[in-house]
Amino acid sequence: MKTLVRTGRYLALLVLVCFFLMPVYALLITALKDPASVSVVRMWELPQSFSMENFRIVWPDLREGFVNSALLAVPASLVSAMLGAANGFVLSKWRFPGADFVFPLILFGMFIPYQAILIPMYRTMQSANLVGGLDGLIIVHIIYGLPITTLIFRSYFAGLSDEVIEAAKVDGAGMLRTFFHVALPIAPPAFAVALIWQFTSAWNDFLFGVLLTSREFWPITVALNNIAGGQTVPFNQAMASALLASVPTLLVYVLLGRFFMRGLMAGALKG
Amino acid sequence: MAVRDVDLTVEPGEFMVLVGPSGCGKSTLLRMIAGLEEVTEGRVFIGDKDVTEELPQQRDVAMVFQSYALYPRMTVRRNMAFGLRMRRTPRADRERRVHEVAGVLGLDHLLDRRPGALSGGQRQRVAMGRAIVREPQAFLMDEPLSNLDAKLRVSMRSQLSLLHQRLGTTTVYVTHDQVEAMTLGKRVAVLRDGVLQQCDTPQTLFHKPVNLFVAAFIGSPSMNFVRAAVEGGEVRFGEARIPIKRDLGERPVILGVRPTGLALANGNGWPTVEVRPAIVEDLGDERFVIFDLDAPRVDTEATRAAVDAETADDALLLPEDRARFTVRLSADQPVSVGEPLTLAINPERLYFFDPDSGAAL
């Protein structure tokens, strides 16, 4: 009976796994097919021969966007995470009068949809002379990322013992030195979460990118859109482009994911 | 408000213990000295300097926390040197002091470990070392031993005494454990509900408590209380009549007797009471004998607060309304549960309290 229940449970999970992996499967095999064997009717069939040809064809069109996106997502996520860490620390461990009012205010930014602020943001950036290049786009992503990174770090630091902070105070450390010497060293797990999140959202953003940058600074999402949105759509090339475009976010997840481990606070307290 | 009325002067080099049941404000008071808690009224002085408005980092005190509060990502060496680093002590000086203190505390071989790789006792010593290295004007210790197991706690307690003798640094030590308070403190300040009750040497606290609360809090087992009346030169409760020398007039009182204030009757002329032991606790060389008296129990806020609800549930098996006494007898004296026992009360060691105010008479 017990084994039956377990088997049933695994079976159900297996079905769900297949369901969720369907698009990934379609993406992968289509990207590896040669143009002749691509058709909607046989889209689920495995290719006759695996070919990397598609990647070689699309890469020249993607390279520029790829570089732009990297130049955009790396600083946007690093700076946003760092500022979020500072915010989170002050809002949870070095509280000031009104902190309980300021935090929801920052958080509120998370619930504003992109589309709602598109026009005022564009006008603001325009009058600040920040439209066209990557710098403006980076600033927008940093600011737009602050609510979520602040939330991540605030929750994380809230779990840090108050006594450790107080020990640093009594030992003579002010706010900045407590932040840098005591809080930051235990924050890698929060940085992993914040960086993965920020990198992914900056890398995947299309709307801000297409709006704020001129042609030579288009991020990869815009380039991808141009390939996929061409007159005749070579499925295999579109899929290969999509696959290439998603490699960095996957990589970031794999590299940072191992910092998700717990136990960085081990030994600070009695337990 | 956690601390309401405290006027306390700690002498230079003194070991002062703040003690009281949980919620009495002792930790808050300590944190006020450290600058971690805001002072709404009154002043705090360290030395001759008014530090009330100063930040913790500006006060030259070191603190040992109950949870130890070590910096998790720093080695023991860096944990201990952190305070010196923050105060910009030259590197060579830092190293020398860390090594010195590590030597005293037996931490030499642990200097490159992180707190996570240490045992509870070792972490406790690192926390202590971090404070000592600083050579501050005062140590503030917030229940530093309460997370150690019983045996280690006792040995650390004597280590602390030794350490204080050697360093002579002014120390303010918070604990809820009156045994720790009595054994460590040169003077002990007893707090209740944020009000200082009495601050004196352990001997004076034990023998001359100013009120019912201090009397009930200090001493283990606790002092026994019974509602009694002073009439015609004797104090009366139940069948007992004890002549007293002091003139207290004619009035109801709360009578206090230490567990050592009673003994087996041996014909030395002390007044006696007949009792029937309900519980006998054998501790090897001595016994605690618990019985109830045919007299009303004392159940005031002060006595309840003093026992911290730990023993407040002892009414479960014994009658609720009768006074309950614990007496400490040597183990070679024959006592058994239910067998009648004649006890003599030492008339020199009686404590009298006003039933309304709880003040000692």
UniProtKB/TrEMBL annotation, chain A:
<feature type="domain" description="ABC transmembrane type-1">
    <location>
        <begin position="66"/>
        <end position="256"/>
    </location>
</feature>
<dbReference type="InterPro" id="IPR000515">
    <property type="entry name" value="MetI-like"/>
</dbReference>
<dbReference type="InterPro" id="IPR035906">
    <property type="entry name" value="MetI-like_sf"/>
</dbReference>
<feature type="transmembrane region" description="Helical">
    <location>
        <begin position="70"/>
        <end position="90"/>
    </location>
</feature>
<feature type="transmembrane region" description="Helical">
    <location>
        <begin position="238"/>
        <end position="256"/>
    </location>
</feature>
<comment type="similarity">
    <text>Belongs to the binding-protein-dependent transport system permease family.</text>
</comment>
<feature type="transmembrane region" description="Helical">
    <location>
        <begin position="178"/>
        <end position="199"/>
    </location>
</feature>
<dbReference type="Pfam" id="PF00528">
    <property type="entry name" value="BPD_transp_1"/>
</dbReference>
<keyword id="KW-0812">Transmembrane</keyword>
<protein>
    <submittedName>
        <fullName>Carbohydrate ABC transporter permease</fullName>
    </submittedName>
</protein>
<keyword id="KW-0813">Transport</keyword>
<feature type="transmembrane region" description="Helical">
    <location>
        <begin position="134"/>
        <end position="157"/>
    </location>
</feature>
<keyword id="KW-0472">Membrane</keyword>
<feature type="transmembrane region" description="Helical">
    <location>
        <begin position="102"/>
        <end position="122"/>
    </location>
</feature>
<keyword id="KW-1133">Transmembrane helix</keyword>
From TrEMBL, chain B:
<keyword id="KW-1278">Translocase</keyword>
<dbReference type="InterPro" id="IPR027417">
    <property type="entry name" value="P-loop_NTPase"/>
</dbReference>
<dbReference type="InterPro" id="IPR017871">
    <property type="entry name" value="ABC_transporter-like_CS"/>
</dbReference>
<dbReference type="InterPro" id="IPR012340">
    <property type="entry name" value="NA-bd_OB-fold"/>
</dbReference>
<keyword id="KW-0547">Nucleotide-binding</keyword>
<dbReference type="InterPro" id="IPR015855">
    <property type="entry name" value="ABC_transpr_MalK-like"/>
</dbReference>
<keyword id="KW-0067">ATP-binding</keyword>
<dbReference type="GO" id="GO:0005524">
    <property type="term" value="F:ATP binding"/>
</dbReference>
<dbReference type="InterPro" id="IPR040582">
    <property type="entry name" value="OB_MalK-like"/>
</dbReference>
<feature type="domain" description="ABC transporter">
    <location>
        <begin position="1"/>
        <end position="218"/>
    </location>
</feature>
<keyword id="KW-0813">Transport</keyword>
<dbReference type="Pfam" id="PF00005">
    <property type="entry name" value="ABC_tran"/>
</dbReference>
<dbReference type="InterPro" id="IPR008995">
    <property type="entry name" value="Mo/tungstate-bd_C_term_dom"/>
</dbReference>
<keyword id="KW-0472">Membrane</keyword>
<dbReference type="InterPro" id="IPR003439">
    <property type="entry name" value="ABC_transporter-like_ATP-bd"/>
</dbReference>
<dbReference type="InterPro" id="IPR047641">
    <property type="entry name" value="ABC_transpr_MalK/UgpC-like"/>
</dbReference>
<dbReference type="Pfam" id="PF17912">
    <property type="entry name" value="OB_MalK"/>
</dbReference>
<dbReference type="InterPro" id="IPR003593">
    <property type="entry name" value="AAA+_ATPase"/>
</dbReference>
<keyword id="KW-1003">Cell membrane</keyword>
<protein>
    <submittedName>
        <fullName>ABC transporter ATP-binding protein</fullName>
    </submittedName>
</protein>
